């Protein structure tokens, strides 16, 4: 029974196979057996199809590979679709629950050699049948959020909330629409999967009409099933001049290591394992990523490619964000950028936090700060503000990274802050060139009245991804930290990483508190679990210009996926003797390092600095019974030490 274009303009297609024993999820069979692997596949496919058919205004289609195993009815003349009833009966016989809207489903036979060619054939067939939008999803992404499917259809159909243009501006598009509404070169929506592929791909009829041959060639040449498939497709789409939209990250299930996350996302019973951080407590700390603008162009900046300026939240909007955060219990706010001081309303926003709400605040910044600004910071800070100053090594090394004169400007800022009665923390990125200068820098800082230093591991996002030579080895980092701690103990400087690690020994850790107690908001109102992911559409948890914070906090699929991930999902963490102390460290660092090296990424990716962190924690655990004062006692009770960034 064909469907005319007038009945549904958007087709949502599930790529599927016959649920035959020994033919599906073969990589799982070694652990689950062939019957168990088929049961896992049926569970995944049935769930995906149930979610697709709940979408309003779309035509659900199953694109079936190996359809010849049970011949489907001949499609009507001129159409590529047939009734899917026989396949759905076989799926139910294999163990899937019956679909409530089984009569809506249509079937399409997959054609072509290789997944890319088969995807292209699906697009070609359905656009020929009259559909204006075609969105294709895989069949093995557990609990695939329906809102991601709806978002893809809305973007391509020009029906996104607040206008399609708003959706494009916020999606990481390669090129935006013209202001006069002129026809765009074409559009492609991708849903990135943690393993480096994608769980969703979609486009519209106009794009296929103009670029169908090139897109078919692109898909056929994409290295499907590899960690570089997504990157390859994104690069090729941009070469074609397509406007690229990226949905939030999700997972698919291919390996045995994926099964624990499958069971958390699709629990077999209500008494299943609860996600981390649940039941949800109040928020603890919020990172306000107030601008991407910056006067510097540091080669190691994670923020280097993020959009700047246009569309930032207004002062009124930021005050509303702060009020919502306080309403959910947040007791501490961190301003970060870019350079937050490039916003004229920065100190009034601090005043809103410390004055109206009596909450703590911190500000990351770089470069010169006038004496008058430092005094104003002290006034609006009310004893609740701590400045965080960026400095990467001694003068020559710092200025080679941050620009000529930056070291002197930063030291002048430190002097103004100290004179104003503030207590600045210096943040230093542990780049290869910086490590040898740490002891000398520590002495210089102490002489200027700085009592606390925080080390930041290089993030393999943005600039560092293009400069791998900036990233030191674990051996280099271990040696440098040991020497720094020795010098710091002599001169009375606190290295707060060590203090934070020591505090972790008191209770088991399981990743960090990002997404469970802490959140970040980017300059345009997008909510993220971690501030380092701001600007990356793969990690958008919600949009405060469309939803309130509490709704995002409690219902975001992106946050649910993160909360469902555990450190021990990583093979290397399962038997590690320090995993309860380090907690698997930073999932964000792990994800971007894996992407940079074309390896499977996501929350199960290995932490890139394990060869540094593990020996550090082994030493701390061995010393735990001995109270040595100094670093062990560092960190006052009312100051939340950094656990990351």
How are the elements arranged and paired?
Elements: E1 10-17, H1 26-53, E2 58-65, E3 82-83, H2 85-93, E4 106-109, H3 115-128, E5 133-137, H4 146-157, H5 164-169, E6 187-192, E7 198-204, H6 205-221, H7 229-239, E8 243-246, H8 259-265, E9 285-289, H9 315-327, E10 332-336, H10 346-356, E11 360-365, H11 371-381, E12 385-390, H12 395-402, H13 406-419, E13 425-429, H14 438-447, E14 452-456, H15 463-466, H16 474-491, E15 494-495, H17 496-504, E16 518-521, E17 526-528, E18 542-543, H18 549-555, H19 557-564, H20 571-574, H21 579-582, H22 587-596, H23 610-623
Parallel strand pairs: 1-2, 1-5, 2-4, 6-8, 9-10, 9-16, 10-11, 11-12, 12-13, 13-14, 14-15
Antiparallel strand pairs: 3-4, 5-7, 6-7, 16-17, 17-18
Helix pairs in contact: 3-6, 10-11, 11-13, 14-16, 16-23
Structural commentary:
With 645 residues, the protein is of the alpha/beta class. The protein contains 23 helices and 18 strands. The strands form two sheets. It has a ten-stranded mixed sheet. The chain has an eight-stranded mixed sheet with strand order 3-4-2-1-5-7-6-8, sandwiched between helices. Helix 10 (346-356) runs parallel beside helix 11 (371-381). Residues 1-6, 67-78, 160-183 and 626-641 have low confidence and may be disordered.
